[in-house]
Amino acid sequence: MQKIGVFVCHCGTNISATVDVKKVAETLGKEPGVVYSTDYQFMCSSSGQNLVIDKIKELGLTGVVICSCSPRMHEKTFRKAADKAGLNSFLLEMANIREQDAWVHKNREEATLKAVALARAAVAKVHLNTPLTPGSSDVNKRALVIGGGIAGMQAALDIADAGFKVDIVEREATIGGTMTQIDKTFPTLDCASCILTPKMVDCEQHENISLVTKSEVDTIEGYVGNFTVKIKHKAKYVDPDKCTGCGLCIQKCPSKKVPDPFNLNLAPHTAINITFPQAVPLVATIDADNCLMIQKGKCGLCATVCPADAINYEDKDSIEEKKYGAIIVSTGFKPISLHNFDEYAYDNSPNVVTSLEYERLMSATGPGKGTVLRPSDGKHPKTIVFQQCVGSRDTSGRGKTYCSGICCMYTAKHAMLTREKYPDTDVYVFYTDVRSPGKGFDEFYRRAVEKYHVHYIKGAIGKVVPMSNGNLQIQASDLLMNEQLHIEADLLVLAAAMEPDKSAKPLAQKLTASMDNDDWFTESHPKLRPVESPTAGVFLAGACQGPKDIPQTVAQAGAAASKAIGLLIKDKLQGNPCVAHSDENMCNGCSQCANVCPYGAITYEEKDFRMPDRTTLVRRVASVNPAVCQGCGACTVVCPSGAMDLFGFSNKQILAEVDALCL
Amino acid sequence: MVYSYYPGCTLKNTAKELDECGRISAEALGFTLEEITDWQCCGGQYTSGKDEIVTKLSSVRALDDAKKSEQDLVTLCSACYNVIKQTNNAMIEDSDMQMKVNNYLKLDEPYKGETSVYHFLEVLRDKVGFDKVKEAVKAPLKGKKVGAYYGCLLLRPGKVLQFDDPENPKIMEDFIKALGGTPVIYNMRNECCGGYTILEDTDAAGRNTSKILLNAEDMGADFLITACPLCQYNLMQNSLSEKTPIYYFTELLAHALGLREKECFK
Amino acid sequence: MDKNKLLSEQVQRNSGVDVSKCMRCGKCTATCPNYDLMEYHPHQFVNMVENDKLDVLMKSSSLYLCLNCFACVERCPRGVEPGKLVEAIRLEAVRQKENNHLKPDQIVEKLTEGMPQQAITTAFRKYTK
């Protein structure tokens, strides 16, 4: 015989203002199986919890129903209390009479009726609850960071400092990411390299960090605490253990017109190259597509001059398999292609550049060695025009619907730095809105206007016409003056919208991590779990989750690292016992459950079944890995034979709830 | 290959060169422009109002005629192309428009946008192929720097016309290359010539066309080609500069194919 | 209901333009090739329809100066398509009695040597009903 206790919470006046809690308690007291029913002002307070504990012990309750807020809020609190009283915590259920009732209704009578119905459903479920015990699995104490930009580096350093081994897998030859291409940072205007390169060196020298450059994640299998990852090392053609980064090979390489992606193709580099002088690791790699020796078998100069004998033209891609307990995704962003926006003449004039290209034009390691020169003829630009929101906040289908968030600030930075270095330059910024909500950000933007006299114009550029002398005729609007402007400019800088790096989408598929419509990784909860992916053991750092500036990226990377440390520090992982399980006798081996499982938790095996006539039948049946299953229940819904069921949310329990609500 | 051909009013009068050179070039390239019988003027301008029914009728008659002949419809004039293609799109996308137009026309079988509409240049690019055009060239335009003038009507609205990238088109540049000329890219090539406002205010149109011509000249064009009689007229009439002549693209084609010799292209 | 408000709804319905989508970036006005001659500019058309100032717009010569070049339609980042809005207002204006902007007997004086038929048919379609 069940002995169920019902506890109805007032939640101050949150519930009791709309729901007659006394009446709910009274009505529920008459339900079959309910031996105790009461109401209390704050069930979640310590005296409220003690009331539950005392009654479990005193009356020997076999089940408990708490009528209060959402289980997201306090299910853990009450389950702990049940545990303390010696009752299996999965014999406790919550009826949400706050979010789903008191807060959304006005009529007291109707709200009270609904509270009674919700409580009844919970009681009906508790009748069928069974004690559940979470299983456990081991944790591999090594973390994988995918993407070695500022986000990945910060996360790796934090995890490594906590004493765990970390591998940073980076596609390029050096770590550092997009920040290596940036000249100075807002709003402090400190040099990006000066704050970045020491961190890069820290990563290289940290005993717990391994840098896996020129490499990509090939496949990912397993589950939280136990990921098996295949990493593809791309051929470098230079032995990184022998190379000293002396640079002799670069001086001698005859293939000097190779497009340099680090400088966004604003200047060429050699086929054998080091990305930039502060690269980490400081080793050369060969761009095979442009190497005369690899392509035509003629040259070999670099091998001749290399004092370390590091060159290996026969190098091949290779695959390595490693195990990890936690994964941090930090694949970052890139500016969108501007081919859809040719009213700005990006494709038809070298003097129309993106903001990131302007960073290279300003940078000491860029093509102008720190002097801004316009790409067409190397002339000093005298009039520079900036256009914000290129492809951002665009619902026409040409661009991205979201605000890219950081363009207002980096454009203010560009404008200010330009005016400071070249006071004889006229600088115009066309804006839709100036968004500057960070610490010191609005002051920074105002400084550009008030101290540096940058012409901020509320309006847009409509048409750009490049002329044969390289100048640009710009037709634009000034909405506040209600004028159309015609400006002859030397250089136009376009604040192109941000989008996720192209590697993000295939990676999300490998991780079974979810993404939004724009291919940003989605977090588990936008407010309360902002750095966790919905896939257990996968954490998000930096701009792979959405547009971010450097401080936000570093903060999020630290948070992701702390979550990963919290996972790695455990020896055993307690699983969620509310997982799916298959009744082998009913399973017909159709595979529908495995097809819908978003976590890859279901596998099939051939099993021997002893038949009544003493023969043995081999059947293909589903089997669920409880460590991987997240308890979403998709498999239970598609299973045509009713073999799949979820512990804690069995079909019978759910039907009992429905019956209680409807009958 | 035979196409239903919609010439339009202007090609029967002031723009005879555009029409005639187009037809003979088509024959030389292995396709025929078969003129639709009893076609009516497209109106020169697509009216985008959703309750504009009557202004769609002449286009739908032409489209239906092509449908009955089981042929694609081809135009040479940019304006006709724009009006007929937009009308066809409305007949597919706007069910209300489709119903009202069909109620009005009382055709044997309702027209529902079945006909495909192509501009002559699209036929050259997508059906004949510019490589085949190149093979047929007998008098290549060696050393000629040619600026393509697109105007608005071939390109916009881009989502409906799907003719080329509306901000940086290259179909006419590829056409010029196929004829052995050197295309000159100048960004004013897709800006409006002033259009029909010439009727009221010749100076106004002149401001637009002179900007276009100055840009083309600055970028080194010897002459311009266009597919629109009104663009050609506006550019010729109102130009502050008289250095840069404007020809129909079919004149250039007919010359390159050795069908009509023209001194100016030599 | 106020006549201006009714007209504002009518022109939005007939053009398919939703003026509330405008984010006030000024791209339309930046791109307009006939800006200098117009009393009201593309962004003002959008804004004035949103604020029910149809009576003012209906009287403006700007209605007949829009070139229908669709540059603003193509480049608007919000898909507002101001050119179609101008067209719908112009239709409202010329559909009113005795409100044709161009009369057939005016054609002879305007017609010059070699002017293509296209100019006349287009002008008629734009200016009259």
Question: For the terminal residues of chain C, how far apart are their CA atoms?
Answer: 27 Å
The CATH superfamily of the largest domain in chain A appears as FAD/NAD(P)-binding domain
Low-confidence segments of chain A: none
Percent helix of chain A, as a range, is 25-40%
Tally of DSSP helical segments of chain C: 8
Rounded to the nearest angstrom, the distance between the terminal CA atoms of chain A is 23 Å
- Summarize the main sheet of chain A: 5 strands, parallel
Cα gyration radius of chain C (Å):
15 Å
Number of helices of chain A: 18
Main sheet attributes: strand count, strand direction, barrel closure of chain C: none
Structural class assignment of chain A: alpha/beta
As laid out across the biggest beta sheet of chain A, the strand order is: 10-7-6-18-29
Within CATH, the superfamily of the largest domain in chain C carries the name Alpha-helical ferredoxin
Q: Show unreliable segments of chain C.
A: none
- Could you say what the CATH architecture of the largest domain in chain A is? 3-Layer(bba) Sandwich
Q: Please compute the radius of gyration of chain A using only Cα atoms.
A: 31 Å
Q: Roughly what is the average pLDDT of chain A, rounded to an integer?
A: 95
Name the beta content range of chain A: 15-25%
Features:
heterotrimer; A: 663 residues; alpha/beta; FAD/NAD(P)-binding domain; five-stranded parallel beta sheet; 28% helix; 25% strand; C: 129 residues; mainly alpha; Fumarate Reductase Iron-sulfur Protein, Chain B, domain 2; 2 domains; 52% helix; 0% strand
